[in-house]
Write a structure and sequence with these properties.
Layout: H1 3-14, H2 18-33, H3 35-38, H4 42-51, H5 66-76, H6 81-89, H7 93-100, H8 103-107, H9 114-125, H10 136-146, H11 152-177
Helix pairs in contact: 1-2, 1-4, 2-4, 2-9, 4-6, 5-6, 7-11, 9-11, 10-11
């Protein structure tokens, strides 16, 4: 999918959900900042970045887990399997799917290469819900605060936090090594 088509698709799906749409636009900007380091995968990451939260759109909601719902929805829209997989596997999706008993549904989408999962997670965690660039630890703190300790998102983000921060560190190291940071 062309990045401009992905942008219009995300906009049409998320326009009624201001926070996810503003956040998704920042995630796209963060992906663009990684484009030099990603080479041939830059467009793939940009497409997945702007579409990563499309699972919150009412037309997509099925299981209640936005990563799986988004990947399924995009698959129905004939998005490339790699895009669907990046959406299904971003951020703390593994932990949330396990807690919700949806690991098999998530596994229907092949795990992308680790460097791409790291990249989309980096983009997500450096983008606030208001569209601002944020520190990853602050972003995780914001999510934990927004969802109470009894909520599945709180529990899974807390459990995934060390792994997610390690993903961010790997991307930052790659940026430093390539002279982009």
């Amino acid at each position: 999918m062309d990045p401009s088509i992905a942008y219009r698709t995300a906009e049409s799906q998320l326009v009624d959900l201001p926070s996810p749409w503003v956040h998704s636009r920042r995630v796209l900007e963060q992906a663009r900042c990684l484009s030099s380091a990603l080479g041939a995968d830059a467009d793939l990451l940009a497409v997945a970045a702007v579409l990563h939260d499309v699972g919150y759109a009412s037309a997509a909601v099925d299981t209640g887990q936005h990563t799986i719902d988004g990947a399924r929805h995009l698959s129905r829209l004939d998005a490339e399997p790699q895009v669907c997989s990046l959406v299904a596997h971003h951020s703390s999706s593994e932990w949330e799917a396990a807690e919700l008993g949806l690991s098999a549904e998530r596994a229907a989408f092949r795990r992308p290469p680790s460097e791409l999962v790291d990249a989309i997670t980096y983009c997500d965690l450096t983008s606030g819900p208001d569209g601002a660039e944020v520190a990853p630890a602050s972003r995780l703190d914001e999510v934990l605060k927004r969802y109470g300790p009894d909520h599945v998102v709180h529990r899974t983000v807390a459990a995934a936090r060390p792994t997610q921060l390690a993903m961010v560190e790997r991307v930052e190291k790659r940026l430093t090594e390539s002279g982009l940071s």
